[in-house]
Design a protein that fits this description.
about 170 residues, alpha/beta, five-stranded parallel sheet, globular, binds shikimate-3-phosphate
Length: about 170
Amino acid sequence: MKIVLIGFMGTGKTVVGKKLSDKLNMKFIDMDDEIEKLQKKSINDIFREYGEEYFRRLETNLLKELLHYEDVIISTGGGIVTSDENLKILKGENKVIFLDGNVETIQKNVSGEINKRPLLKESKNIPQTIETLLEKRYYKYNSVCDIKIDINDKNIQEVVSETLVSIG
Ligand code: S3P
């Protein structure tokens, strides 16, 4: 089984993915961590030195590579749905799980780690930036997901339990 977690920044893809991997005894790969390891640079530095387009290409190449694995849980970056090529790839998978949070939840969750997010850290109005980006992406997350989990007002354990029930 292959599980791909998608959703906006701060929806818990990494932490939920790790917990699922413990419960299901499956390998876990976080795409941002993997890109940082491969490039030996932080996501911030990649964005700053080479730009977003370059990062998106790294992301697509890695996604294609990771989907060759069997029995893996993949946590994607929030912008994975910004590329049409990635959307096409994700549509071919059958356990794409969308962790769906609203602006308020996302803002609360990212508040301690804004500096790690190149698309948020320069913003003068974080909720507005989240809302604008989320509006552009929301229908894309919906269009490729097989399962949607509402994460609002839930703790990680509740999200993990609900996800486990949904994947059966
Ligand atoms: C991004 C989300 C980040 C990371 C990069 C770009 C985005 O991942 O890939 O900063 O475009 O939403 P997380 O969703 O893990 O924060």
